[in-house]
UniProtKB/TrEMBL annotation:
Keywords: Endonuclease, Exonuclease, Hydrolase, Nuclease. This is Endonuclease/exonuclease/phosphatase family protein. One of its GO terms (molecular function) is endonuclease activity. Residues 35-388 form the Endonuclease/exonuclease/phosphatase domain. It comes from Pseudidiomarina insulisalsae. Pfam families: Exo_endo_phos. The lineage of its organism: Bacteria, Pseudomonadati, Pseudomonadota, Gammaproteobacteria, Alteromonadales. The keyword Nuclease applies.
Length: 398
């Protein structure tokens, strides 16, 4: 694996022909590594199912305190790949516990199995909709439990399946935008779920009026990469399964992905509003990277057709480069597309997609060693680390 790329050289071009001409500063290209990793650091990886609701919020803090082997393995993978900017999916949001700081200080900053420690001076974490109680019977089972399917995003406790960003470069917090409360109904052409065999809405009018688009959240995290503004567009759409004929999760997944399509398109985007009260999508000629577990694949029959193509085929996005691994192919040798898989359940679900503007792709990959190769034990099972694989991309800002 190549070492982390984070190099910048100040370049000054002088026009010197004997004339007293003004100096012109020319910004040099910057290379860096961006990665996304669904780390499965939530209660479902540490507790029996019957304890998720009652003890779930204590599971990750206890696992960190116990130096759980799964967390050590996650840290070892990160230290091995050494991304400069890293998105973490399924990292619980527990603001009273400082779990992100604890993970950094006690695991990433400490050598794991001989790997060099890695330090991130900057981090971003914010609330998510998973486990946030709603007062409605969202799954229409006759109960209003406020958890599981009746939470605004599926979760057994507030903050389950959260997200975080770690960065070696400064994060512009004032310019960063979150869209946790953007309403699904406010997305033009929203795929509102219907009762099977009818034209009647699945959700009650009151529930639909309050339903957020994001199962977790959507973030535009603005990062200053040695003078370049880079927008990290982070999300984790709901899986397009665990529902019924109404396909409410499949429809939500499609529209959660479509939000980014609209956000980077610069067309009639005044309908977009963030939690900070600002309107509009991303301005033209901005460098961005869409990163996260998008729960969508061109191979999947569970997704609404074209879900991920909304991004992969968008002219503002470089969607043709596909990170690969030998381990993915070994996991499903009969399928040539398995080299692209990012999850043990044999699909490409995790993406790092840079903008067409201002970014050149240098290299990329999926951390998935083959059996018998170094560190293969780290991806042996979900209990070893995660059922997802770290996906990385080396890019040049220019």
């Amino acid at each position: 694996m190549k070492p982390a790329l984070a190099s910048v050289v100040a370049l000054f071009v002088f026009a010197s022909t004997g004339c007293d001409m003004p100096k012109k500063n020319v910004q040099a290209p910057v290379t860096l590594r961006v990665a996304t990793f669904n780390v499965s650091m939530d209660a479902s990886n540490y507790l029996a199912a019957e304890d998720w609701q009652s003890k779930g919020a204590e599971a990750l803090p206890q696992a960190l305190e116990d130096a759980h082997p799964q967390i050590r393995a996650i840290a070892e993978i990160i230290q091995h790949i050494r991304p400069d900017i890293l998105v973490l999916n399924e990292f619980d949001y527990l603001p009273q516990k400082n779990v992100l700081q604890q993970f950094q200080q006690q695991f990433l900053a400490v050598s794991q199995n001989g790997e060099a420690p890695i330090h991130y001076e900057h981090a971003f974490i914010a609330p998510v909709n998973t486990g946030r109680p709603s007062p409605f019977d969202l799954n229409r089972d006759g109960k209003t439990s406020g958890v599981g399917d009746d939470a605004w995003g599926y979760g057994n406790y507030p903050g389950q399946y959260g997200m975080a960003v770690l960065s070696r470069f400064p994060i512009d917090r004032e310019a960063t935008r979150t869209f946790q409360y953007f309403k699904w109904r406010d997305l033009p052409g929203a795929l509102q779920p219907l009762l099977p065999g009818t034209h009647e809405p699945w959700y009650s009018p009151a529930a639909w009026a309050e339903m957020p688009l994001s199962a977790k959240s959507h973030w535009d995290v603005k990062i200053d990469v040695s003078g370049y503004a880079l927008h990290l567009l982070v999300s984790h759409p709901t899986p397009p399964v665990f529902d019924g004929e109404e396909n409410r999760n499949g429809r939500r997944n499609f529209d959660e992905i479509r939000f980014w399509q609209e956000y980077v398109s610069h067309l009639d985007d005044d309908f977009i509003y963030d939690d900070q009260g600002r309107r509009g999508g991303l301005a033209d000629e901005q460098r961005f990277v869409i990163a996260g577990d998008l729960n969508a694949s061109v191979e999947s029959a569970d997704n609404i057709p074209g879900a991920i193509a909304q991004l992969l085929e968008h002219p503002a996005i470089q969607g043709s480069f596909t990170p690969t691994s030998a381990g993915g192919l070994e996991n499903m040798p009969e399928n040539p597309q398995a080299v692209e898989h990012t999850a043990s359940w044999r699909k490409r679900a995790d993406y790092v997609l840079p903008s067409s503007y201002g970014i050149r792709i240098i290299d990329g990959g999926v951390f998935w060693p083959r059996e018998g190769e170094a560190k293969a034990e780290l991806v042996e099972s979900r209990e070893s680390s995660s059922d997802h694989r770290l996906v990385w991309l080396d890019i040049q800002l220019r």
